[in-house]
Amino acid sequence: MLDIQNLECTRGDRILIRDLSFRLRAGELLHITGRNGSGKTTLMRTLCGLTLPYGGEIRWQGTPIRRLGEDYRRELAYVGHAHGFHGELTAVENLRVHACLAEGQTEIEAALDRLGLSAQAGLPAKLLSQGQKRRLSLARLLVADRRLWILDEPFTALDVSSVLLVNDLIVAQLARGGMVILTSHQELGLDYDRRTVLDLDR
Fold it and tell me: Which of 14, 54, 84, 100 is the most exposed place for a label (fewest CB within 10 A)?
């Protein structure tokens, strides 16, 4: 489904990743690890099509993503370091905007409830705690049906119960044939056998 061939990624004039190849199929999880500065975020942005690779190719269902353009981006959901919402809008308004832009589902209240944010639905997003902001970012995954999730440090600022909740969301995505690529400095508490670890330090 997602095929990476001899990928090279740079930041400035420094090559961070060289000759990286892997294939991700439906129901599979790729866990990317590595020290700060190893290229994790650069790789994630490249896989999303936000940054051009220095070399190599990324293919989706056999076609280079540079040729697919928006057709590829409609297949993926990206949660990066930035929260990706407007601070003046309420939590529910932010999700409505995202659902509209993503031509997604309209079960906004259900998504907020699933992420434990029902009580904060009417609050401006800027007033949420860091953990609540992170959960609001992740709630976007539930209002748009996407086959590929690309999650850069999704557990940042989350407490133990929220980490378990996000793990459940990931397992559900994989169980329905979706794919997940994520970075994390911590061990994943996922009991899932179709998981591959890619250590960029190696």
Answer: 14
